[in-house]
Amino acid sequence: MGVASGDERGTTERVLTLLGLLQQRQVWTGPELADRLGVTPRTVRRDVGRLRALGYRVRATQGAGGGYQLGPGQDLPPLLLDDEEAIAAAVSLLVGAGGGVAGAGDAALRALAKLDQVLPTRLRHRVRALSGSVESFGGGRAPVDPEALMTLAGACRDEVEAGFAYPSGSEVRRRRVEPYRLVASDRRWYLLAYDLDRDDWRSFRVDRMTEVSARTWRFRPRAAPDAATFVQEGVASRVYPHQARFLVHASADTVRAQIPGSAAVVRRRGSQLCEVLSGAGSLDFVLVRMLLLGHDFEVLDPPELGRRCRALAERLLAAGAATSPVPDES
């Protein structure tokens, strides 16, 4: 067997990179692919031909909104999976996307979005039907509609607008958004998106969405905040009427192991110091939460929290002083 030359290896790597790009987004223009691959549009056309020769159905459309698209076919692409393997893998990924293993849900959802894009229609229907019969126990995330997750993941990937009905106070309103990232916490799935009606960044709970749909209208990505940080700060702090910051005399890893990510944001400030951002319905509740961690801490914000510390300390001292000693019955 001959050894592949450097040019052949380069071509193979480029074609595999092209396949990965086609799996990431619904439609790419020729110039976009050429820019990503560092080649000419003519080379892109030749590489698309190589993928077609291998059995991958790459569509090419002209005009506004046109470009290259990896479409589903009658058979799975070569060297991937047969029908039964594809169904088993997709259902396993659906379970993983809803599971509680840290990081596994995000990876499972990304892999499922790629697999769903190339599944033949007959298999896609079977996967959706089987997913409805899979459940879990022992906590985990709030249940969400797998179809909604798939629709939102695809909209993030394809950079197209999405819409859904979402509760706001006592009403349920239609929201139009530019979806950017799906974020999994220990309990829920969230969508980071730019709200077109409110002209600002928002995070939405996927389990509260209904009538989820993706449009064909593509958007130009904006400079987005870090998705995980934005969602965590919103869940742990911004949604509450009172927010507080503390300097805790313990390592960030130690404190993160003591308090859920949905209750506080922990930032490293040194090997044995960290900053904790948390919110609650009352400042006293935040103080008690920090006290129960068992570490020395200092109040950074807000100023009135210092006064609440002193008031709480005086109340605890008074309660201790009022306790009568237990008589010795010996």
From TrEMBL:
Instruction: Name the InterPro entries for this protein.
Output: CBASS_pafABC_assoc_protein, DeoR_HTH, HTH_11, PafC-like, Tscrpt_reg_HTH_DeoR_CS, WH-like_DNA-bd_sf, WH_DNA-bd_sf, WYL_dom
Q: Give the Gene Ontology MF terms in alphabetical order.
A: DNA binding; DNA-binding transcription factor activity
Q: Does the keyword Transcription regulation apply?
A: yes
Q: Which UniProt keywords apply?
A: DNA-binding, Transcription, Transcription regulation
HTH deoR-type domain span: 11-66
Protein origin, superkingdom: Bacteria
SUPFAM superfamilies given in the database record: Winged helix' DNA-binding domain (SSF46785)
Which protein are we looking at? YafY family transcriptional regulator
